[in-house]
Amino acid sequence: MKRLLLCAAAGLVLASCNPGPETAHRTVSLSACRLPGVESEAQCGKYEVWENRATRSGRRIAINIAIVPARMRAREPDPVFVLAGGPGQGAVSLAGQVMPLFAKLNDSRDVVFVDQRGTGESNPLDCEDDDDAPLQSLFEDSLPGDVVRKCLAGLDADPRQYVTSIAIEDLDEVRSALGYDKLNLWGGSYGTRAALEYLRRHGDHVRTMVLDGVAPPSMKMPLSFVADGEAALRKLVAGCEAQARCRHAYPDLGGTIRDLREELALHPERVGIQDPRTGERETIRVNQNVFLSGLFRPLYVAELASLLPYGIESAAHGDFNPLLAQNLEFADDVSENLSLGMHLSVVCAEDIPRITAEDLAAASHSFFGRALVDDFISACRIWPRGPVPADYYDPVRSKVPALLLSGGIDPATPPRHAEEVAATLPNAKHLIAPQVGHGVSERGCAPRLIEAFVRAGTARGIDGKCLERIPRPLFVLPVGSSP
């Protein structure tokens, strides 16, 4: 291993290095590197592809790659490939977060992180931060036209070339250049859509597939969040009612939410809050949309959702700071590793064109409404639209073993989407963690299940009952509330 790393550090792939069979045919120059939060030394490199893969002319872009090599000398030839979410997240920056999930698999398998084109360090379609933007903008899920136009004008890229179907061709080219034949795919959230498209086009190179929080191409983002978010909110209210102390502290949580929504639609509140960027206090106009965003975002994470009843009750008594504070933290975490331009390239090409007038009419009568959907529709009138293959929305049919994971209280990718996908994957098993939000892989016994699945190469015998024992976090109660 030491000799191999030394050779890689010099950017050489030589017979004298005596690499294992899976690295013998690499055509990518890799060098030793360190990934934040990862103890093991990694190998990093770039691989150039045509931005326009159809014409194979014009601009070339570098795809960013990081490999955490298997620790054992007797390694398996099929690595784990990590596909990030978003759309717009870079995979490499997630290494420190997800490597504990693959710790045991990494004994005998490489773990490979590839920044999808338009994300991370693969020619990211980033929009410059506006330091002068008011704090108000962090609380509103909005895409003003001037922001979209400024982002588009600042790109050194053709945004039409950053859709999923083109990106997975990069992935397969990288796979071949790295000398791998079969892959074990792990995708989270939007990464499941990318994994499914890779399976459709290059299924002969997939050994196993783990999909966590399934977001198939048939799903219309962000329209689907309207219904799924409302279902998750209903489960939050029911969860509070099921806990005696929460029920006692917040006796009519559902009614309080409805009343606040209606009141803020008519009479927005003005609230003072500290801007974490400057330390200065600013005034936030809490209107209906800010309130709805404040409800939806924490539903992704059960621990954050456990604070919601307290934040809602505080808001009902005039104190919006608890609700706004947790949303500010969530918004910062999301924006830290998200390329907005790539997000728009995917959604504007693959999702928004499929939203019908009937869809919008139904959204208008939902609890969360259609404000977020309308913002994307407006943004996508500006953003160039890339090509989508004719069969892109067809169900993916494959006999490749697949493990599908869903959080029962997920507001974005609840179990219904995984059930749709599993219907055409005969060797798939769908496991649900009833009290988990968005992302199951790192929870409870899930890492052990994933390890067993990948090692065995089959979902037969995988028992997910242990996921049912993961509890919903206890709801936060007001200080001094009675038991």
Q: What's the total count of β strands?
A: 11
Q: What's the mean pLDDT score?
A: 90
Structural class: alpha/beta
If you consult CATH, what is the topology of the largest domain? Answer: Rossmann fold
List the secondary-structure elements in sequence, H or E. HEEEEHEHHHEHEHHHEEHHHHHHHEHEH
Any idea of the CATH class of the largest domain?
Answer: Alpha Beta
Count of alpha/pi helices: 18
Strand order of the largest sheet: 1-2-3-5-4-6-7-10-11
State which percent range the strand residues make up. 5-15%
CATH A-level architecture of the largest domain: 3-Layer(aba) Sandwich
Q: What is the 3D form?
A: globular
CATH homologous superfamily heading of the largest domain: Alpha/Beta hydrolase fold, catalytic domain
The radius of gyration computed from the alpha-carbon positions, rounded to a whole number of angstroms, is: 23 Å
Q: Tell me the major beta sheet.
A: 9 strands, mixed
Distance between the termini: 58 Å
Report the uncertain regions. 1-24
Number of domains: 2
Instruction: Work out the helicity level.
Output: 25-40%
